[in-house]
Design goal:
The protein has 357 residues and is α/β, with parallel strands linked by helices. It is built from ten helices and 18 strands. 30% of the residues lie in helices and 27% in strands.
Length: 357
């Protein structure tokens, strides 16, 4: 059902560009909830979606972009659960089947039926094959996918649903190792939209020494502002510099928010034996896993994807306590092309956020 018209930034053809257009305003039925959007984050995953060729991603065209969404509950279907009308919320982005054991536990990011959803071209969540939040309103399948944010500013809340949540989940993947090793060091490669939040999360939730790496001086300045103990540019001698900062033994964990060939090579060089490598970025790099091989003995490799709904609640709590703050560049929804261009050029410091105007 729909009533009236509303604006949405739609991907109408593969390769883009997305178009700001009018679409029917949806009316929630059943368990659905309609959220009036206050802010929507823009990240490199959106660029991957826009640029994808036929067959690259299991999504049907057209759909509305935007998987980092904060807003206010506007309408509820007759069987809706969760926050009431008027509540300010952030939307949990990965939408699974809703019925498997993992989804029931709030881990839609690892839905047991993900392969079926991909095969049906159903999409993996808001703004990823299903209509997202770069719009005036967003129709959410269930209130279970909404997390209250209280008085947290919308431009701060929206990026928490991916940049904050993914960074938190990646840190959680290696946290036990960091806690088990006295004077542990952790390397964060790539201090962008996710990396600058990972630095803050590490400082707030662990006692580890945080070493940051990037190719941009301004990113290292941001890392320092976020609490990194040390930062260095990516150079031929970076692994030597980082190892010296760990007393020569290497890092207990590396969080790679780039995922490129050079970042993975650096990660392998600086890991200690029995260390943990979490590859978060999708930069096209490859890692050869063989025994014996380049990886230190006992290395554990993980590929964190997004995070769970309970983890999103913890991320929101950190932000409301003041322990987590997103570096934001704000744009009007109608200025989405400018925001996308700045993101492509690498000019965005932190996270770009679109606000309906």
């Amino acid at each position: 059902m729909s009533t009236g018209r509303t604006r949405a930034l739609r991907l109408t053809r593969r390769g883009g560009p997305p178009v700001l257009t009018e679409v029917p305003r949806p009316v929630p039925v059943g368990e659905e909830v309609l959220v009036r959007v206050e802010a929507a984050g823009l990240c490199r995953s959106d660029l991957h979606v826009i640029d994808a060729r036929a067959g690259d991603l299991p999504y049907r065209i057209p759909f509305t972009l935007g998987h980092e969404v904060a807003g206010r509950v506007a309408e509820r279907g007759p069987r809706a659960v969760g926050p009431p009308v008027g509540e300010r919320v952030v939307v949990y982005g990965p939408w699974g089947c809703g019925t498997c054991a993992r989804c029931a536990a709030g881990a839609d990011n690892y839905c047991d039926r993900r392969a079926e959803l991909d095969a049906d071209l159903t999409g993996t969540g808001t703004g990823l094959g299903r209509d997202g939040g770069m719009a005036d309103v967003l129709l959410v399948p269930s209130g279970r996918l909404l997390v209250p944010v209280g008085d947290l500013a919308a431009v701060q809340a929206a990026p928490l649903s991916d940049a904050g949540l993914t960074a938190y989940h990646a840190v959680a993947t290696v946290r036990r190792s960091l806690d088990d090793v006295p004077d542990a060091s952790v390397v964060v490669i790539g201090v962008g939209g996710l990396g600058h939040l990972a630095v803050q999360i590490l400082r707030a939730t662990t006692a580890a020494r945080v070493l940051a790496v990037d190719v941009r001086e301004e990113a290292l300045t941001l890392a320092e502002e976020c609490g990194a103990h040390f930062g260095t540019l990516l150079r031929p001698d970076t692994s030597t510099v980082l190892r010296s900062r760990t007393g020569g033994v290497g890092a207990v964990a590396v969080l790679d928010f780039v995922g490129g060939h050079s970042s993975m090579a650096l990660a392998v060089d600086v890991l200690r034996a029995g260390g943990e490598l979490a590859v978060v970025g999708s930069g096209g790099g490859e890692l050869a896993v063989r025994k014996p091989g380049a990886l230190p003995p006992g290395t554990r490799v993980s590929l964190p994807f997004w995070g769970t709904a309970p983890e999103l609640e913890q991320v929101v709590a950190l932000a409301r306590e003041g322990a987590l703050r997103v570096q934001v560049e704000q744009f009007a929804l109608s200025s989405a092309p400018e925001a996308i261009a700045r993101l492509r050029s690498g000019a965005v410091r932190g996270r770009a956020v679109l606000v309906p105007d």
